[in-house]
Amino acid sequence: MDSKAYFEKVMQDFNQFRNSLSLRKYCTDEGVDYHWLIKYKKEYLKQ
User: Fold this and answer.
1) Which residue of 21, 23, 40, 47 lies most exposed, with the fewest beta carbons within 10 A?
2) What predicted TM-score, i.e. pTM, was given to this entire model?
3) CA torsion sign, 24 to 26 to 28 to 31?
4) What distance in Å separates the CA atoms of residue 2 and residue 22, rounded to the nearest whole number?
5) Taking 80 as the threshold, does the pLDDT of residue 25 lie above it?
6) Which residues contact 30 (CB under 8 A, 6 or more apart)?
């Protein structure tokens, strides 16, 4: 899975299942690298 598709899936799942969790807490619970996600989010929004 490429980075863009993975990023979109993580963000979609977060928005759907967050239950008032912060993005950092959601990443910790799901085993997603929070720092990579934030870095990629900044690059993704530039496009």
Assistant:
1) 47
2) 0.80
3) negative
4) 25
5) yes
6) 10, 13
